[in-house]
Amino acid sequence: MLVLDASSFIGGFNPQFADFEQYTVPEVLDEVKTRRAKFVLDVSILSGKVKVLSPEDEYVEIVKREARNTGDLWKLDATDIKLLALALKLKRERNVEPIIVSDDYAIQNVARRLSVDFTPVAYSGIKEEIQWRLYCPFCKRQYPSDYSGNICPECGGELKRKVAWKKRINKQKDD
């Protein structure tokens, strides 16, 4: 089972040639802008190759919590979060292994933490699972990865992120 991100269509993935159940979220339809990618997406939906579903709020909240824990929440937009939530929903409710098709590294990092498989389209994909830490480049204060703001309350500087830890992904296990 595949869960398709906008980057899969933009990267040239064509669901017509995949022999899997395929899903996406309604928000992806708004993100695909190029004529060719939009045509492929529209035809795939009209032909029934791709089904459009929305995840329940409970799955969205689980994804947000994990994205906060990894430090990726501020890199994910609402579409990314819903896409991850849909994959988690399908995995849990249907007891299947969905694969998110996306070139987005933050999606891949959070998917890894959720034990949801992923595959990139145009890029090589993540090679390490990363835990991020937020910091202020001005006053050097550090914040936990689940800190919800993006402005330092001490000096007003814009927070940046840096790697707190990383773990190499064993590709043989994932293949």
Roughly what percent helix?
A: 25-40%
Question: How is the CATH topology of the largest domain named?
Answer: Rossmann fold
Kindly report the name of the CATH homologous superfamily of the largest domain: 5'-nuclease
- What summary fits the major beta sheet? 5 strands, parallel
Number of separate domains: 2
* Poorly predicted regions: none
Query: Class of the largest domain in CATH?
Result: Alpha Beta
What is the total tally of β strands?
A: 8
- What is the number of helices? 7
Strand content: 15-25%
Overview of this protein structure:
There is one protein chain. The chain is α/β, with parallel strands linked by helices and about 180 residues long. It folds into two domains: about 1-120, Rossmann fold (3-Layer(aba) Sandwich); about 130-170, Rubrerythrin, domain 2 (Single Sheet). The protein is built from seven helices and eight strands; from the N terminus they run E-H-E-H-H-E-H-H-E-H-E-E-E-E-H. It has helices spanning about 5-10, 25-30, 35-45, 55-70, 80-95, 105-115, 170-175; strands at about 1-5, 20-25, 50, 100, 115-120, 130-135, 140-145, 160-170. Strands 3-2-1-4-5 form a five-stranded parallel sheet. Helix 4 crosses helix 5. The longest helix is centred in the middle third of the chain and has 17 residues, at about 80-95.
